[in-house]
Give the backbone structure.
Amino acid sequence: MIKNISNLGDAALYCDFGTEVNKEVNNKVIRYFKSIQKENIDGINNLTPSYNKLIVSFDLRKKNFQTIKKLIENLNVINDDKLESNNIKIPVCCDEKFSLDIKRLEEKLKITRNKIYEKFFNKEFFCYMTGFIAGMPFLGDLETELRAKRLETPRVKVPKGSVGLTEQFANVYTFESPGGWNIIGNTPSVIFDSSKENNPNLINPGDTVTFEQITKDQYNNYNE
Amino acid sequence: MNKNYFEIKRAGINTTFQDQGRSNLYHIGIPFSGAMDNRNFQISNKLVGNETNSPVIEFAYQGPLLKYFGDDIKCTITGDVKFIIRKNDNDIEGNCYQSFTLGNGDEIDIISTNKSVYGYLAISGEFNLEYQWSSCSINTKANIGSNNGKRIEDTQKIYISKINKDLNDKKLNYINTKIEKIRVIKGTNFNYFSEEGKNIFFDKEFVVSKLSDRMGMRLDGPKIENIVDTNIKSEGLIKGVIQVPADGNPIIMLSDHGTIGGYPKIGVVITADYDKLVQLTPGSKIKFQEVELSSAETLFKLYDLETQNLISQI
């Protein structure tokens, strides 16, 4: 199922599942990721699943590329039906002070903000991966009408909780961070909680996510 | 229990607690973090009789000025560091790689690292620290680790929960060497770059930019031309990956890097050269040299053996 395994530097394996980005390919990545995690192999010190790649990092004191490659090639990969998936609802307020790039999107996409929000809030998203900053979910897929490029000049600071769009994806900024996504709203929901060590991420790869529009009052009085 | 402590009279530029870092969290967006220069980190602990992965104070460029209150304690500083031990207003020039005793009211003034970035202060005992995912390492970007995930600040106190007594003074003869050639393995997107771009990468000199920190090291130099696509579908990153964004200037991922990135990977710094790479100050000139995977593995074995030898001499 892995198309090609190569080395990324001297202490990581680069598993290539192809160039396409879709649920089927990502599902294979997640199955491999969970299968390796389950095996608890001594010396593997990190796994990074993404849309269509899986990186396996290891401790060079304990393992090397060839030994890890063999382990991955002979791995027992878990079946589709054993993959857990949750549906998560995320409240989003699109008040003017939060929807920093809605005007830009209206101009770029040539559709009204009402239409943008209608399409966005009626969509069930799929979480392909989490990362870049702690807990940030990469969610797909946006309809073609909503696909826009990143800002030409990224913001130095995107506020925490910002909900952004770029190309076929949506995301949520779990921390204040530099970034170039088109921001359309903000969520009061805690997406990453480092005090929950066993499960710090509200959204995990394979989960589905729907966004629900809330008013400014609901945002200000939000209680989890 | 908290009668032994340091008072921070000057925090320094980027002073944090670090240990070996945290693993198996890339998939939720959390990098290793941990001490940048792993060799100097381990040596500092051994010099004060600790386990080599015990928490230490890491500082960059200008270090902290700490005043100590409590029972006598052994300390040491590793790296290439200029510091002063102040006892009753007497200044004593400090020497790296040897332990010294601090008494009540004494101060350590870590003035600066010499032609290097990071240095380490270890104590014979334990700091009173919170752990997250089995590590105290401070990741200021995600506010994870001890000290609420924030760098150490002026006027705060650092409590010591345990002091190991009866420790003999220890010393190591060691001089940090600087490297100018960084050895790299070709990256997964090496062929995204023009023939000229590839040649530039391995032949020309690059300069470490001021925009470098625990997350990454930016380099200035001749532009590396991309002929395929200046973006890739976002995918995982690891320590040492060299990405080249659209502007053609390479960025090397360091210990606190973002876990996912969308720029083409031209190369990856070999593990054996990482400790020395992170010590390069802004303005340093470097060149990249290509090595094969098998050589990189051998070079790491040698480097690790050398580190273990140094530790066993203490």
